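Quick one: structure tokens for this chain, please?
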Amino acid sequence: MTITQLYYVLAVAENQNFTKAAAKCFVTQPTLSMQIQKLEDQLDVQIFDRSKKPIELTEVGKKIVTQARNIVNESYRIQDIVDQQKGFIGGEFKLGIIPTVMPTLLPMFLKSFIKKHPKVKLKIEELTTDEIIARIKDGHLDAAIAATPLEDETIKERVLYFEPFVSYIPKGHRLHSNKKIDVSDLDISDMLLLEDGHCFRDGVINLCKVFKDHSDDQFQLESGSIETLIKLSNEGLGMTLLPYLHTLDINEKEKANLHFFNEPSPAREVSIIYHKSELKMQIVEALQDVISGIIRGAIAFQNVKIVSPLPNK
């Protein structure tokens, strides 16, 4: 049994196709198939049910894949040990970022990180929290930046910063004349929300602590982007809540619609998260160092109350 064979098994399990798996592993399909067949012969079990289209794991195959993922991940740790001993910070690093953090945080730190660590090849994807957790567990992401706490025992979290919620209240709204607002002032019935699947949406709902049935409403507005929520609010269709960093880029006219909360300000906790196996920690720490240094000058709020990003918390 070899690590290469286990790596091939993981590739087939992921792609459910021998040809696609071979392409991903940069080998010919006959080579990959032969190595997997040799492993099955050695173990005297069938890992894949080849009669199914797409190919499926057998019951024992599912257990083998779980263990194979652990073994392959641990094999990567040897290179990590060598890299850390040499003080080397480089190589490919796959980073996921949630949509409500990506457009504000990434431009703030990316150039500085690349300049400081030119040997790191960052591969960045915008993903929802659920997608991020699944990919970290499957080994398809090295780390991610997301709202926490996630309460997942397989995921470790390092807090980067606390980002307050800010109300965006257009003229004509019942709360527009308030200089500051309380959480108790919020009403989910006139709140514009992000679409389901965004953890910031779940944070807003948790903050309001109201789960109203919208079925009798005249309309229900949800959007996939914060920029659209602002435009809808400007049309008088309701108020919305924004992460603080998003408020830094809006125009002066729109800034007149921003209303901060009385302290302690509701806020989300934003962290860099990674698998408990702690692979490539030298790059995780380098990211944390650069981001924390930059964000320190952008967010000066101290008295905050963290709102959970998890549904119904």
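The two ends are 45 Å apart (CA to CA).
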